[in-house]
Amino acid sequence: MSEGNIQTVSDQLKSKIQGMDLNFKSDEVGTVTSVGDGIAKVYGLDQAMAGELVSFDNGVLGLVLNLEEDSVGVAVFGEDSLVLEGDKVKRTGKIAQVGVGDSMLGRVVDGLGAPVDGKGEIESTDFKPVEIKAPGVIARKSVNEPLQTGIKAIDSMIPIGRGQRELILGDRQTGKTAIAVDTIINQKGKGVYCIYVAIGQKQSTVAQVVEKLKENGAFEYTTVVAANASDPAPYQFLAPFTGCAIGEFFS
After folding, report:
1. How many Cβ atoms from other residues are within 10 Å of residue 189's Cβ?
2. pTM value?
């Protein structure tokens, strides 16, 4: 081979090497060893983080809950019958988070913050982790502004302030939801954002609440987090955390 041909081959090799795309992505993949009661035991995810989302072979998501010496426990966001022993599990590298901001107002979402109202995707630019440490007592602002429920008997006897927790106790069908819905409706025009979290209720019951809020013009400043009775247990477990994350953004 002549010197000119050698030089040509050398130049071609150099151009090929310079044009190579060296970007590559490695995924940590584990294997399901057992499944039961909505919990999957996974072997091989040594670097998994507590609260991280993982993806199963069939596209079902899971949440890493407990980290053990040789395996991790994953709560399955779907029918655990779809997850079989030997299935592969891939890390997403993302801690469970929910979209927050004004785009969540007037929407109905599930326990992970995904829309379930048929209005399309929620365009969120801000996200908050679902599980986050609450601010300490010293860091919190003192409760100094009243919050009216709109029910004279309650407002005259029980002082309730913005930022205060108030427990509504009562047997079934005694009006607990009615008090909460009336309170949300009474916040119209007062600059208060409301988050209603329904856990383990029938879809028809949640639909009735949403309809009543719409009728009274209260839905535009309200977010409904619905983890219905038919939803998998992990959604019902995460729903209150999701509601708090959405509310703490506004606070």
Report:
1. 8
2. 0.79
